């Protein structure tokens, strides 16, 4: 019973949440339309959380992803004001993400600053940079090309369902691609195996021939890039850019990875767990909004569920030991 | 009348018995050894005494009064002191402050701490325990591990008002101590005994137990098998009691003679923080490195392994120059390393056996050096496991779940998985019980027999004499002698370590 | 195993019970209206939403107020969720151009969306807001009246921001209609620190250039911050007894205080936030009744604030 609760506690909880909303919202919750909505709503968070998983596998974390997302959105929008083509603006913003992430990597692995301190500092700097580049304003309206904002509204047609046209949203597609890439990276390559080794015991990994510094640097650069990609997706969805719009992503991404790690047998972050963790957050938002539950009550519930999941998995571990 | 009596102590974890009935008497003013292989139940017994684990059944008497030790606080109130724990010490504070941490510091005018008086009191306490080399004004964290332990004992000796220390429990205290430090510890234990307190001494090292303990209790497989006076028992009897069978030889026999081909050589290799060294290792040879603690053996291995860069000189592997820039380089070139601390340096406890075994050679075992092939890794881990006589549920078992000896075998399996030519061993049998020790010696022999060169750093002189072909003696960062193991004995080796000429 | 089954069954039973309860409340034939804003924590927004809720209570609507705590993308998500719920109407308080993905979803589902001080957009049925033209007309005519239609006037404007730009257009027209009013200077202050500090600096320069008492009759500002800056400059220069008339727009608390103290700052215009909320509710009820709303913007009257009523509301 106890092992079962420890191993599958969060999964049972996840199923219970699904069941609860299904029964409470019989007509609207378990519909293709609603799930496509949820997938699109969560796509940006999924991308950030997937990137966050890469560094959390090593036992580190990156607090700067939110401001990196904001900055990337601003960079894209500002490039549009210079009439750059979409591909150029997007590539430039992704490059900013890669560079910002690499700076985090250098601070942490080469200089040896704690991830909390280093990424807290870059969080502040990137956020300031976003304000400087944008002049503190929201960039919106005609400067944002239709092709850019249209991307977030478009999708891959899936035919009809109950007489309504259904499409797989482009943003969801991007998220799926990123998750697939991160899955291959973490679960199927020597790179991922070595990151897990670093997370398990950094000194033993080093003495076993793992190039710890190089891998950390690459991992943080990847996290920075995914954060930038999420920021670009966000800007596309809201057809505008604002220097603070990514700020809610960081805490939710860390929460998603923590929730997700309670799915895995040994409590380590795994990409598929992260996706389930993020989905729990998204389903709660979606379902509770539909049930007209007050937004602030929703926040309390989300926090409570994270505490419940993490404490169940650690409590059952204690009891067993 | 005994100080502490244990009768029929029984404990099972989730149905698996750990203690099946242990009896033990400890008299006042006695140093009592607790012995047994890893997994025999020593640590469970100590946890029960410390109040950390509740026994299923036990009759515990203290001063002949039945007591129950429900939590660490009640153990403390009885006067039990567990020296291996980091109790009541603050590395940033001075030795004197740490010794008197549980008591009121002397004050001047009832207000300012009287440092002079405090340091003087600390000095007096240290002297009473026969410790004269520690300055009470130094920060605790700046002392060696051995001296820190002495300070912890002094602190327990002073204690808090009202709860005097009656029984000191030391669990493997000499595991990370040098010979000198161990010797000082024994002096202190002697003084404790003279003061009327008792000591429960847990150790694998038979010679230590033979020389300092009064009585010994041996437990095997969760039961106490014998208790007796040390004076009445021999070294071999103790071993037999512990493992339940007679061991003919402590070391596996040498097979053949090492070749004369030099496979590794260091030429005026300048070690950072040490001097420059010249030595060579022949194919199939075990080169021992002897020396007192911290005279630079570790840095020699780390330099050979590429973790520390050499300050000068050259290394040759075969005929090719060898200049490792990192451990990754070393593994690639065919240098394997078994570090001193297997849990913190050798293994990733949370990961399965096969991931640990393949980690140094991951690229070779992967598709296009990038994509994992877990089946191949597991097959390879199984065959390496057989070579090192690993006892495990399978290649996917987490290393954390293995016993200490089996964990160390996984560390050796890492070195076997690739094409290692030179194997560097740093205290490979530390904290390993007698049975597993023999297995590890056998592995080392087999590796040498396959033509590998082995460098064996050990502070255990009998181990060096039993295993090595030649022994290099290090003193103050330099190699002072290289002798054939067959031509020397423990006494001569020890004298060389101290730099004394033999008479 | 049996133990687990029992817990599971108890759990299912409880869930079903709660669910039935919730479904029952939803089953009443009420109109469902969602109010979605990222800015609920801001005072102005709270006024609209409270007034809207009060009006909705009278109409017996089921109102769901959703705050996304500054997250604009989440506004789109919540619009989508409300479309899934098939609510009867959505009221929005965010720049519509940033949430057009959500507006499109609502339009496809035929759910009307009403802006509450949101900005205009073809995908909104209408936007309920204050009339910027009218507000500027209130203060500029006040100035013209107080200086008897003659003398030098300093204007503080900000053309880059459309809602403020319309204010100066009206003021220009009003002052232009008085032949004896001369626009001494048209200043665009740097607003990066709120606008007060730079406006004060600019005003100090203008005062220094026009040292004669009576050479400046009035300061007209398109919003309150520059008016407050100008007031500080005039007081610091010791020219607060020349009768220079200052007006602002928006009626922020600092401006109301300045007006109440009876100094040079004489008038500003208050938006009727509560009125915006209740008017939005009115508009929604007209839409629900089947009426077609012809206006793209529904203006709510504003109120001139002077010493007579500065602290009244």
Model description:
- The complex is a heterotrimer of chains A (321), B (503) and C (313).
- By secondary structure, chain A is mainly alpha-helical.
- Helices cover 76% and strands 5% of the residues of chain A.
- Chain A has a single domain, classed as ABC transporter involved in vitamin B12 uptake, BtuC.
- In chain A, the strands form two sheets. In chain A, strands 1-4 form a two-stranded antiparallel sheet.
- A six-stranded mixed sheet of chain B has the order 6-9-10-3-11-12, with helices on both faces. A six-stranded mixed sheet of chain B has the order 18-19-20-15-21-22, sandwiched between helices.
- The mean pLDDT of chain B is 86.
- With 313 residues, chain C is of the alpha/beta class.
- Chain C has two domains: 30-124 and 274-299, Response regulator (Rossmann fold, 3-Layer(aba) Sandwich), CATH 3.40.50.2300; 132-270, Response regulator (Rossmann fold).
- Chain C has ten helices and twelve strands.
- Residues 1-28 of chain C have low confidence and may be disordered.
- Chains in contact: A-B, A-C.
- The interface between A and C is large, with 44 and 40 residues.
List the main descriptive attributes of the protein structure presented here.
heterotrimer; B: 503 residues; alpha/beta; Rossmann fold; 2 domains; six-stranded mixed sheet; 17 helices; 22 strands; C: 313 residues; six-stranded parallel sheet; 12 strands; 46% helix; 19% strand; repeat (chain B); ATP-binding (chain B); ATP binding (chain B); ABC_carbohydrate_import_ATPase (chain B)
Brief rundown of the structure:
The complex is a heterotrimer of chains A (321), B (503) and C (313). With 321 residues, chain A is mainly α.
